[in-house]
Amino acid sequence: MLNEDRIILMTKLASYESGEGKKNAAIGGYFRSDYIGMQVVKSVIYATIAFFILFGLYILYDFEVFMAEIYKMDLFEFAKGVLKSYGVMVVSFAVLTYIVYAYRYNKAKKSLKNYYNNLKKLASLYDKNKN
Amino acid sequence: MRNLLEIKELIRRFYSKNEVFIVPVLKFLLALIALLNINRQLGYMPRINNIAIVLIVSLLCSFLPTGCIILFSALFVLLHLYALAIEAAIVGFALFLVMFLLFFRFSPKDSLVVLITPLLFGLRIPYVVPVAMGLLGTPASAVSVGCGVVVYHLVRFVSVSAPSIKALDVSEATARLRMVIDGIIDNKEMMVTVAAFAFTVILVYIIRRLSVDHSWTIAMIAGTIMNIVILLLGDLMYDTNISVIGVIFSSLISLGLCVALQFFAFSVDYSRTEKVQFEDDEYYYYVKAVPKMTVAAPEKTVKRINTQIGQPSHPARTAQGGHSARSGSVAHQPSRGNGGRSPQKTQSRQTSSKTAPRSGSGRINSDAAASEYEET
Fold first, then answer.
1. Cβ contact B97–A53 (<8 Å)
2. Alpha carbons B325 and B302: distance in angstroms, whole number
3. Does B94 lie at the interface with A, CB-CB under 8 angstroms?
4. How far is B194 from chain A (nearest CA, A)?
5. What are the pLDDT digits (tens) for A69-118?
6. Does the distance separating the beta carbons of A7 and B287 come in below 8 Å?
7. What's the mean pLDDT in B284-300?
8. What is the DSSP string of A53-115?
9. Which of A59-73, B15-29, B31-45, B317-331 has the lowest mean pLDDT?
10. Is B363 helix (H, G, I), strand (E, B) or coil?
11. Residues of B in contact with A53 (CB under 8 A)
């Protein structure tokens, strides 16, 4: 027989599953460290690409001067400076990513906890109906 | 106010019912306005500076995800820049790519702001963006708003400097590149605006989250003032040539728009009808969940015309007779002491009855009658 409470609860759960829940379930499938670590690695890759783009523009900006001076300059010092800038950019971006995604993971977990509680409630409604 | 609330309710109801049609139409309009604006400002490539192409792309955008509007707009900008000078296209591409890689990762939902901000700059009301995003978004929205400001200044710079860029010889590629990069990096006005908008977004967000009465209104006003102050300070420090009167006037208009936005956005859930399917051991369920509507009920207010006991209180009352008894709460009040009235008073009541309205809702009748009495 149809149970109104059960249908309302199931509808809510189905709506959650098809919307926000889909994203949260994907996040909830990871351990915290795995999820945040993966996002930080992604960010490091993105930051590296972005750094190369910016570095390319920097070189192109004064390309003629750069080519003229490349034999005179201390290449070791230059590489050290470039690496330093790269390190600062990547580390700061990774830290920002860690903070943002740690917050998002906690939020998703909280939302999923609520969802699982509703699932338990639904199971208990089924049990009550059987008895 | 009541009428406004009813309009708000009507809009909400209309949106909930017709969301399937409204969203594509809005997307189409946004794409159309954005692409036409880009073509108007840049328009160096005749092939895409064509209304047919714009209409086709806008139609396409109306069915594709919202992000596609940004993608097509960026593509249009890059193609125009390419037609002007390949160096400008390289700088534009690098800028868009860096924005995509570094910033949109954190606030993908707000990416539409990148498109809306330059459009509002064109309408000379850009200050509505940081306040609105502070009200509706998160602190991460500051990133999207900042990117929008950068895009606007890139397009404006290229649009203004196009003759100078063209004047440089093709062999002077480095000089062209340097010119475009300098135009972006050395733009103090852009830097000051980005800083002002970012701070405003964060301030508005913090204040509107406070548990104080009228937090949204306080946030809007504080955000607008903060924005003006930073822009003016920036003008003093870096000589950005910002028009003080223009900033204040535009900020006031933006504040008015934000008040309207608050009215329509505050505590309103434009939730749509959902269709979900699921099953259990016994049934397959195909459920259509329709959000409950809260209709703004017309308020009935009791208006006391005369506070003195025993005085004739409402001249239109007896003239309206049975009608007034059924229609409004005001009409009930005087009928209690109506028994021993003098003929003179009855006459005055009859006179007034000629002007008192006889039809319409009870509240309107009683209000009109009340004003009639005050005139007598």
1. yes
2. 14
3. yes
4. 19
5. 888 888 888 899 999 999 999 999 999 999 999 999 999 999 999 999 98
6. yes
7. 65
8. HHHHHHHHHTHHHHHHHTTTS-HHHHHHHHHHHHHHHHHHHHHHHHHHHHHHHHHHHHHHHHH
9. B317-331
10. helix
11. 94, 97-98
Sequence-distant (≥ 6) Cβ neighbours of residue B77 within 8 angstroms: B38, B42, B92, B151, B155
Q: Which of B287, B288, B290 to mutate to probe the A interface, most A CBs <10 Å?
A: B287
Question: B177: distance to nearest CA of chain A, Å?
Answer: 6
Question: Which of B211, B198, B159, B196 is CA-nearest to residue B180?
Answer: B159
Which CA distances in Å does B82 have to B37, B205, B263, B301?
A: 18, 39, 44, 66
Separation CA A47–CA A85 (nearest Å): 12
The DSSP annotation for B259-323 comes to: HHHHHHHTT------EEEEEE-SS-EEEEEEPPPP---PPP-----S--STTS---THHHHHTHH
Q: Which residues contact B334 (CB under 8 A, 6 or more apart)?
A: B305, B312, B313, B314, B317
- Per the model's pLDDT, the better-predicted residue between A18 and B299 turns out to be A18
Q: In this predicted structure, what is the pLDDT of residue B266?
A: 63
Mean of all residue pLDDT scores within chain A: 88
Give A100→chain B minimum CA distance, Å: 8
B193-247 confidence digits (pLDDT tens): 999 999 999 999 999 888 888 888 899 999 999 999 999 999 888 888 788 888 8
> What's the pLDDT score for residue B51?
92
Whole-number pLDDT of residue B179 = 87
B94:A57 CB<8 A = yes
